[in-house]
Amino acid sequence: MAKVEKNYKLSNGLNIPNIGFGTWQIDHGSLAVDSVKEAIKAGYKHIDTASIYGNEESVGTAINESEIKRKDIFITTKVWNSDRGYDNTMRAFAKSFQMLNVDYIDLYLIHWPSAKGPQEEWAKTNSSTWSALEELYKDGIIKSIGVSNFMPHHLEPLIDNAEVIPMVNQIEYHPGFMQKDTVDFCKKNNILIEAWSPLGQGEVLNNPTLLSIAKKYNKSVAQVCIRWCLQNGTLPLPKSVTPYRIRENLSVYDFEISDEDMKTINSLPYIGGSGLHPDKVKF
Ligand code: A2P
In which residue ranges of the chain is pLDDT below 50? Predict the structure, then answer.
């Protein structure tokens, strides 16, 4: 069996645990605190949140109340769309930092590209947001920086004007929705792809092809989706508030999907997902 390491290395040399616990749609308060604590207990070493999720404070509480040492947990958060631009981003970061109540952030992302109106305007907005991330990165308070939901036409102008190339692009990625152009562009530029909604928000779990592949390995479809992300070199961020699923989603290092089954999954047509397109979203 090909060994899948438990970390990827970012372009700046930083190790990043290759499965992250996704917290999108987990309400702040006891549900978020308990779910993150459960994830840490299960062995997750990487928690993904965002200011718009409204649960940063709960994520911070769970981390600070857990046994885990700060250096053993990787924390990602993101700047929201209403905080774009250098000054707003600096203020937004200060707030996230305070909410999370930790002494540094491992990864900070631009949540969605600015993409409305003339390109010269939105590209400028993305670059000024990015310059705030670059400064925070140089200060050392953030250990790595990246983007989310960027397609090649958003990344190109950003990179042209950047001092630091993004280390990560977090995109929707699951069977039937592989965003090949974006993934290829990022691979060429040494940008790690993180997969949000690796289970298609649960919508891919009843697909007959995936069900028959999962049966063959005596695994669940969720586990197949997560392992499939790893074997494609992407970093899955499964979300669950259900303790046995939280544990199940991390138990993917003891089997390997064959090349033939990888090909079958890679060629599945669209079978559900968020339907959100960076150039069309209304937020
Ligand atoms: P729940 O949180 O109630 O456990 P995604 O990560 O693609 O956004 O998918 C999240 C959705 O998939 C949630 O509805 C979550 O439900 C569900 N889910 C997460 N893990 C599993 C699993 N192992 N089996 C079935 N459903 C799961």
Answer: none
The best mutation among 211, 239, 250 to test binding of ligand 1, ranked by most ligand atoms within 8 Å of the C-beta, falls on: 239
Residue with tokens 């692009």: 169
Cβ-contact 29, 56 below 8 angstroms: no
* Neighbouring residues of 134: CB distance < 8 A, sequence distance ≥ 6: 145, 162, 163, 164
Neighbouring residues of 132: CB distance < 8 A, sequence distance ≥ 6: 79, 85, 86, 87, 89, 90, 93
Residues annotated as catalytic are 53
The tokens of 65 are what? 């109340």
User: According to the model, what pLDDT value does residue 3 have?
Assistant: 63
Render pLDDT for 177-187 as a digit per residue (tens, 0 to 9): 999 999 999 99
Q: Whose CA is nearest to atom 19 of ligand 1?
A: 240
48 ligand 1 Cβ < 6 A:
no
Nearest CA to ligand 1 atom 21: 245
- Rounded Cα gap, residues 202 and 211, in angstroms: 13
Q: Is the pTM above the cut of 0.85?
A: yes
